[in-house]
Design goal:
The structure holds 3 protein chains of 3 kinds. Chain A is an all-alpha fold. Chain A folds into 2 domains: about 30 residues; about 230 residues, MetI-like fold (Orthogonal Bundle). Helix content of chain A is about 75%, strand content about 0%. Chain A is globular. Chain B is mainly alpha-helical. Chain B has a single domain, classed as MetI-like (MetI-like fold, Orthogonal Bundle), CATH 1.10.3720. Chain B is globular and about 65 Å long. Chain C is an alpha+beta fold. Chain C is about 25% helix and about 35% strand. The chains are: A mainly alpha, B mainly alpha, C alpha+beta. Chains A and B meet through helix 1, helix 3, helix 4, helix 5 and helix 7 of A and helix 1, helix 3, helix 4, helix 5 and helix 6 of B.
């Protein structure tokens, strides 16, 4: 089989299509991105930098890093464990397990927050009992972590499972016949084969953990300086008509998105063969 | 006949701990919370549940969320196909940049997208100031909801269709050409049918994402009850009133209707795939 | 060390991959497991390697119960069908892997590992490729790395799963000769799986023919050719023609009043099927099966003639080119007369 390949647009129709596509991407995607930085700098660099002197903004940045720092490693471990079980072994109910892993992708972020309130809120299943024991979850950092864990659960697993399934268990089996133990096989054979896919998954997971809005918005309570992550802080500032402040913090998040995108694209180009088939451009 | 085993024997170690941790994590973070979502609305009783989800405000929100999500997915299929075609077929300066930029809605936090879109489409914004004199208001109207949903859904269609379009065999089109098909016929009769299943997948993913979308929509929607209020926002509002069961009811209905929509789409995909295989 | 497999059975649901398989190999023997796909040959190899457990039966190696050992403890060198090379390691690291993963007290020092890798790469004729990655090698080179990797752990037994399956015909022949050499040099007991009868006959000291999970026959290549035990073995080891007959006192009698000596287990039978090879046929003027030649093709010193009888039965005949009249052409009507035939028990004749 041979694919059609790239050619320079030659006909009028081709130029028309090209123009439509480029215009569409420019208006739908690039323009909003530029506007973030334009709005943030509307009143000059001084105002822009001033926005980051706000202790609440700094607290939001720290909290965002904290939540991501907790959630990403945990879900990376989960992704490795799930991929090891699903991709290297044959067992019944695998399809159901895969559906469960994918589920957080297909539910609304608001629902991903709501469910924690249903469990741990003042009227939740476990809320009153925990409250009596002096433990609060909703409107604390714990709830932010739980909501973020749920939203970012599939990211690493989804990168690793197809790749590890594609690679099969042959190399691991060979390692075992050569006398390698389980842990040695995992660290010397499996992990090096998936390291770039793991990094790719961790990257997407981190971006989402730091940028999540809907789910954490429901459980955070928007306590300034305490439970506001950066996206939530953007909302608070925006609703208080502090547009420069809101867009300044937003520009930080947009910068983060651009870095993520650049790294992601770099990984796709450089290590195409070592990512799962769906990621090879 | 011996019953099929739960697990095929393997010489590789670690299945028990790996599956154990996987199940524990999924149980804690997915199954238990969703069980609460499924169970709690019934505290209202069947009748109370029905009343809760048929309030005019809820119906209006569901209608807006569904209608806008469907429309946005449709817009994304049309323009997504054009973008994918250009990215896969044409060599032009900045092609790789354009290809990378498609993923921005995946990476950009929704709240950032929300305030940026609002700024652009507001009456004094870059685009809004052009549309306003023409009598078109985007920000704070259902049209704004659509714009935000188009933004978040675009990459799903492109990324679903792109690999399939890349793998299209050149001989397919050449065969059609030698058989006398003109370019339009080649696209309509040969290429589009081959891309149809991928288009449906992209449509489904874009639709599901738009339906549940919150962050990028609430800023631009204006959130007028009965007019531009989306279903996820109603959940938030009910939670703020400590109406947990009511919030869960809306959540459950959203989930149910989304599942129904995806089921329909999957069925049509099975039919498309069968036709493609024949 | 000697290998003994006793009554090993392995089922997957209703399907019997191995059905009471028994065989033995003496120390240093080169054994081929030959059979079509689904015959159980790979299942048996995996049992020997410890990659799968039989449902019943025993496997003894050097008198030791092999089934009680894990794959790690068996110290068998396995060469996988698709090689299973570690794609992120260089050739040298692949070969050294089995030594480097040993517990510290059993691990040879680094310099010795390096020396052994060097020696092995010389043995498999891959000197100078030690820094390459598997993706940078040809199929035949990968095969040799896989073998060097298996030999590095100084295996007590070498197992090869379709070692040449993924290679083209020319490379196969080269590697075949070379594998035989390696075996003669190392003297390690070797079991290899193949579906190619020519390969098995060419390489092995003895061949185990497997069919549907059962052993059909075990013997030296010449024995299998001279005295196939079952119709399956006869059919699998070469092209085969069939003709109904009755057998009387070791002679096959055919319609048309001619006969041929009948070899094989059946000495007397009112209804039987005679089998004969294409090269064991004469063209006769009378007394033989009347057929029409449908196609002739040249094969070196031979001419292969495809023939059809009036009842539609097809025959393949090899004629010596020098002894064949030049006038013979497609459409000619001739009579076929087998010089000797094999007759097997009816139940096995399919």
């Amino acid at each position: 089989m041979r694919s059609v390949g790239l050619k320079r647009p030659a006909s009028l129709g081709a130029f028309l299509l090209l123009a439509v596509a480029v215009a569409w991407l420019a208006v739908v995607i690039v323009l909003p991105l530029i506007s973030v930085f334009a709005e943030a700098l509307r009143k000059g660099v001084g105002e822009y930098l001033e926005a980051f002197r706000d202790p609440d903004a700094q607290a939001a940045i720290r909290l965002t890093l904290l939540v991501a720092g907790i959630c990403v490693p945990l879900n990376a471990v989960f992704g490795l464990a799930a991929a090891w079980a699903v991709a290297k072994f044959d067992f019944r109910g695998k399809g159901f397990l895969l559906t469960l892993i994918d589920l957080p992708f297909s539910i609304s972020p608001v629902i991903s927050g709501l469910v924690w309130v249903l469990l741990f809120g003042a009227n939740g299943w476990f809320g009153p009992a925990l409250e009596a024991a002096g433990i609060r979850i909703i409107f604390t950092v714990s709830a932010l972590v739980l909501a973020t864990l749920l939203v970012t659960l599939p990211f690493v697993a989804r990168e690793l499972i197809p790749l590890m399934a594609e690679q099969g268990a042959d190399e691991e089996t060979a390692a075992v016949t050569l006398g390698a133990g389980g842990w040695t096989t995992f660290t010397r054979v499996t992990l090096p084969n998936v390291k770039w896919a793991l990094l790719y998954g961790v990257l997407l997971c981190t971006a989402r953990a730091m940028g999540e809005f809907g789910a954490v918005s429901v459980v955070s309570g928007h306590i300034r300086g305490k439970t506001n992550t950066m996206p939530l802080h953007v909302e608070v500032l925006y609703n208080e008509y502090d547009f420069v402040g809101a867009f300044a913090v937003a520009s930080l998040l947009a910068g983060l998105a651009l870095v993520t995108l650049a790294l992601k694209t770099g990984l796709e180009w450089r290590y195409a063969g070592e990512l799962s088939a769906g990621r090879r451009h | 006949m011996t019953a099929r085993r739960w697990i095929e024997p393997s010489v590789l170690p670690g299945f028990g701990p790996a599956l154990g941790f996987t199940l524990f994590w999924l149980g804690l973070l997915v199954v238990l919370p969703l069980a609460a979502l499924v169970a709690r609305p019934w505290e209202l009783g069947l009748e109370g549940f029905w009343r809760s989800v048929t309030e005019p405000r809820v119906l209006a929100a569901l209608r807006l969320s569904f209608g806008a999500a469907l429309a946005a997915a449709a817009v994304n299929v049309v323009f997504g196909l054009v973008v994918t075609w250009v990215l896969v077929r044409y060599d032009f300066p900045g092609r790789r940049f354009a290809d990378a930029v498609v993923d921005l809605p995946f990476a950009l936090p929704t709240a950032v997208a929300g305030i940026a879109l609002t700024a652009i489409y507001a009456g004094n914004g870059w685009i809004g100031s052009f549309l306003e004199p023409l009598g078109i208001k985007v920000a704070y109207t259902p049209l704004g909801v659509l714009v935000a949903m188009v933004f978040v859904g675009l990459p799903f269609v492109v990324r679903s269709v792109q690999p399939v379009m890349q793998d299209l065999d050149a001989e397919l089109e050449e065969a059609a050409e030698t058989l006398g098909a003109n370019p339009v016929q080649r696209v309509v009769k040969v290429i589009l049918p081959a891309l149809a299943p991928a288009c449906v997948t992209g449509f489904a993913l874009a639709f599901a994402r738009a339906l549940g979308e919150y962050g990028s929509v609430i800023f631009i929607a204006g959130n007028m009850p009965l007019v531009s209020e989306i279903a996820p926002l109603l959940i938030v509002i009910r939670l703020e009133q400590f109406d947990y069961a009511g919030a869960a009811a809306v959540g459950l209905v959203m989930l149910g209707l989304a599942a129904l929509g995806l089921l329909t789409i999957n069925l049509s995909q099975v039919i498309l795939a069968r036709r493609g295989a024949a | 060390m000697s290998l003994s497999v006793e009554n090993v059975s392995k089922r997957f649901g209703r399907f019997a991959a191995l059905d009471r398989v028994s065989l033995a190999a003496v120390d240093g023997e080169f054994l081929a497991l030959l059979g079509p796909s689904g015959s159980g040959k790979t299942s048996l190899l995996r049992v020997l390697a410890g990659l799968s457990r039989p449902d019943e039966g025993r496997v003894l190696f050097g008198g030791e119960d092999f089934l009680r050992l894990s794959p790690r403890e068996r110290r068998v060198g396995m060469v996988f069908q698709h090689y299973a090379l570690f794609r992120h390691m260089t050739v040298a690291d692949n070969v050294a892997f089995g030594l480097k993963v040993r517990p510290r007290r059993d691990r040879p020092p680094g310099t010795e590992i390096a020396a052994r890798v060097k020696r092995l790469l010389a043995l498999v004729q891959l000197e100078g490729l030690d820094k390459r990655y598997p993706a940078q090698l040809s199929g035949g080179q990968r095969q040799r790395v896989a073998l060097a990797r298996a030999l590095a752990i100084e295996p007590r037994m070498l197992l090869l799963d379709e070692p040449f399956g993924a290679l083209d015909a020319k490379v196969r022949r080269e590697l075949r000769r070379w594998l035989r050499q390696i075996h003669d040099e190392t003297g390690v007991t070797t079991v290899f799986v193949t579906h190619d009868q020519e390969e098995a006959m060419d390489l092995a000291d003895r061949v185990v023919v497997l069919n549907a999970g059962r052993v059909e026959q075990i013997g030296r290549p010449a024995e299998l050719q001279a005295a196939p035990a079952t119709a399956f073995v006869f059919d699998f080891l070469g092209d085969s023609n069939r003709l109904p007959c009755k057998v009387v006192d070791g002679h096959a009698m055919f319609d048309g009043g001619f006969s041929a000596p009948a070899l094989g287990p059946v000495r007397d039978a009112p209804h039987a099927v005679a089998r004969f090879r294409p090269h064991e046929v004469d063209l006769a003027v009378e007394g033989g099966v009347p057929v029409t030649i449908t196609h002739l093709s040249a094969r070196g010193a031979l001419i292969r003639a495809e023939c059809q009888a009036e009842d539609g039965a097809l025959f393949e005949v090899d004629l010596l080119r020098d002894a064949t009249p030049g006038s013979l052409a497609a459409g000619a009507k001739v009579r076929l007369r087998p010089r000797r035939v094999f007759v097997f028990a009816e139940a096995a004749a399919t």
